[in-house]
């Protein structure tokens, strides 16, 4: 299903209705049971041949799968059982992935040998609260906690530095402008941006002051559950909310960033948003109602 996005300030419900007369392309699907409730699926390589799955609840675990030409579309390369639920994952350099857990801890795995090789375990960086979202920040990691803290973590030493604290529980994060700017969406429905180039060591502030705060939804307390930045246009950021709203943010000047358009495209919360890494005009949106949409974002600013 293709949705055409154009830039305007109106809040639009079901934007694909305008294209009702055009045929709807049917994407080929493959399916394989994971035997666990999945909280995240992550491609570990550019070739999209290998994925990491995070299983939560009963049977919580990490799984490494690879595409296969056999009876099943994937073969299981490795499985690691977990003591607590894994909440989020992100890729790093040198075939590494970082996992954030419900107790606030982080783990680093290497997938180079077609297995999940544990490299490091970092104790809770959120005072025992959950690490809800993680993303790469140069050679380190940004971890967002349910206690409203955002921590910059050095994975080599395990030390963390507070970027911000005191915000409502953070549900999603992403970086843009070469990792210099971080945006975080919280449970109160706000998106906050910080410039990581600011130096707190030479100032009286213990944490960074936010540059901008945005509210993508008209519904009160509509949590921002997903964020991503464009792989080529660093000024373009997409967000998704718990009420099924997807919005586009023009961040060319971070201090005057604004939401250019919002669309209600799902019946339940948005679970992930992502621009295609090589075809940036395609925006992929998954929802808790089971839908997966490809949106044409070529008209975005």
Tags for this entry?
single chain; 301 residues; mainly beta; 5-stranded mixed sheet; 4-stranded mixed sheet; globular; disordered N terminus; WD40/YVTN_repeat-like_dom_sf; WD repeat-containing protein 55 homolog; WD40_rpt
Explain how this protein is built.
The strands form six sheets. This protein has a five-stranded mixed sheet, with no helix packed on it. It has strands at 2-4, 11-13, 37-43, 50-56, 61-67, 74-81, 86-91, 96-101, 106-110, 117-122, 131-137, 140-145, 150-153, 160-164, 170-176, 181-186, 191-195, 212-214, 224-229, 236-241, 245-250, 258-264, 270-275, 282-287, 292-296. The chain is built from no helices and 25 strands. Helices cover 0% and strands 48% of the residues. Mean pLDDT is 85; it is low at 1-21. With 301 residues, it is mainly beta. It comes from Caenorhabditis japonica. It is found in: Nucleus. Keywords: Nucleus, Repeat, WD repeat.
Q: What's this model, at a glance?
A:
This protein has strands at 2-4, 11-13, 37-43, 50-56, 61-67, 74-81, 86-91, 96-101, 106-110, 117-122, 131-137, 140-145, 150-153, 160-164, 170-176, 181-186, 191-195, 212-214, 224-229, 236-241, 245-250, 258-264, 270-275, 282-287, 292-296. The protein is mainly beta and 301 residues long.
